[in-house]
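re: that chain from earlier
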Amino acid sequence: MKLLLLGTTGYHPNDRRHTSCFMLPSCGVVFDAGTGFYRVREHLTGDRLDIFLSHAHLDHVFGLTYLWDVIAGRTVDVRVHGAREKLAAIERHLFAVDLFPAKPPFRYEPLVAPVELADGGRLTWFPLEHPGGSLGYRIDWSDRSMAYVTDTTADPHAAYVDRIRGVDLLIHECQFPDGNEEFARKTGHSCTTPVAQVAAAAQVKRLLLVHVDPLNTGDDPIGLATARRIFPATELGCDGREIEF
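^ sequence. v structure.
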């Protein structure tokens, strides 16, 4: 299974990273539609695109306004999934005519039951603590599994740890290096050590750190060695990378 990292920062893009967007091209699934969403066009091969939103904050949904270009010249059934109230907020605000002139062709599908994917995967979701609320996702196939957790303050005792237990790949936000715990809690984000502790507590196989601070443009914005001391199988996500799992 291939995962494409199309946007790996949060809040706003910088010269190295766009905001959150992750794609499973084999089944036409995208997690979040941040500013990296325009890159989906390069990898879209089927006639259906399913976009699963964690929440409606702008750095995770602004890319929906790029859909005209993403599907230009193609017939694609685009479905945007998420919590009902978040989808309503997107329709009311992001696609208000005073902000965006013509809504692209897609339909909203509020999450009400597990979603069976075209490649046999089964997608479920779970709530996360974040200002305004957020969702995490898990996909289970017959031979592998993954989870996507973003925009939350990591805690190895949090309820969501049981929902990601044992996955082959955990994609988890890590906005700040250690030392920024107070601001992380205030903004609903995570520091390095608690994220690594979550991965260890959940007994996942691999940890991929994303949604890093856009103001930290260095090669190691979160202190990778710190995470690896707690959970050795930790990697840092960067735009353009392909992950096989």
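The chain has a mean pLDDT of 98.
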